[in-house]
Write a structure and sequence with these properties.
Number of strands: 9
Order of helices and strands: HEHHEHHEHEEHEEEEH
Largest sheet: 6 strands, antiparallel
Distance between the termini: 35 Å
Shape: globular
Number of domains: 1
Radius of gyration: 18 Å
CATH superfamily: q2cbj1_9rhob like domain
Structural class: alpha+beta
Helix content: 25-40%
Strand order of the largest sheet: 1-7-4-9-3-2
């Protein structure tokens, strides 16, 4: 595994992503899908107008609003399972911390098109974005629950700024729009059971279509200043910690919050 880990780290450092095919078996995906669909159906009812008009994702899947205690424990155990932690620690070897979960699906509104972005563009202006991509980044671990068209990303952009074409499309400058194709884009089709790991700050877009329903886990290096982004409700309750086989990922975040 050490050799594999170093290869994964090398791929991530160089390209900003890697994909492992068939990483999860049918039983693992089936069990996860059941919990996630419970959340999704309740969330859709509660956010009907938003879902119908503009939504393409939800967050705080591990929170207490839509999942019962036992389902939350199941989800926490999946997120911190040996399979997941082996991958997390290949990318962030020292004290990785849990940030959040997101669920990505097809928008009901067919006028909506998939769009290029860096996650950091929603928190920082252009000059700060240029700096942020060279600092410690947030890592997405994406698990498709059904076969889907996947994601399109621009390899290497976790460590470099946009080309003129990339910038104009992503920022919708000079008459370009963010749903246009990029000559540098690389499409990665995903199937249920695959695992895609990628930098949140690289240029990327989800591809709408098929039965898209993908769970993303977001983790960060605890040396970075990201703990303020973590919602308390998405963390395990104290009584859950001894029901989680390996709670380190969550404990790190809880301790960072206590220091904060």
């Amino acid at each position: 595994m050490e050799k594999n880990r170093s290869q994964l780290k090398s791929n991530y450092d160089d390209q900003g992503y890697f994909v492992i095919r068939n990483y999860f078996n049918i039983a693992e995906i089936s069990s996860l899908r059941k919990v996630i669909l419970t959340f999704h159906e309740l969330w859709k009812k509660d956010n009907k107008k938003f879902y119908q008009e503009e939504a393409f994702n939800s967050s705080l899947i591990t929170g207490s609003e839509y999942l019962a205690y036992d389902d939350r424990v199941k989800l926490f155990n999946f997120i911190s399972s040996k399979k997941i932690m082996a991958i997390v620690e290949s990318v962030i070897p020292t004290n990785p911390a849990f940030m959040n979960t997101q669920l990505f699906f097809n928008p009901v509104n067919h006028q909506q098109k998939d769009f290029w972005h860096r996650d950091c563009q929603y928190d920082f202006d252009i000059e700060d974005q240029k700096k942020v991509i060279h600092e410690t980044q947030v890592v997405h671990l994406r698990i498709p629950l059904f076969d889907e068209l996947g994601i399109e990303l621009v390899p290497g952009t976790h460590k470099r700024w946009d080309s003129d074409e990339e910038f104009d499309v992503r920022q919708e400058e000079k008459g370009r729009v963010s749903s246009e194709s990029l000559s540098t884009g690389n499409k990665i089709k995903l199937a249920a059971g695959d695992l895609l790991v990628f930098s949140a700050d690289m240029i990327h877009r989800g591809l709408y279509g098929l039965d898209r329903l993908a769970l993303d886990m977001l983790v960060f290096d605890s040396a970075a200043d990201y703990v303020d982004y973590v919602d308390d409700d998405c963390l395990p309750e104290t009584s859950m910690l001894d029901k989680i086989d390996d709670p380190r990922l969550f404990m790190t975040t809880i301790q960072l919050k206590a220091q904060g």
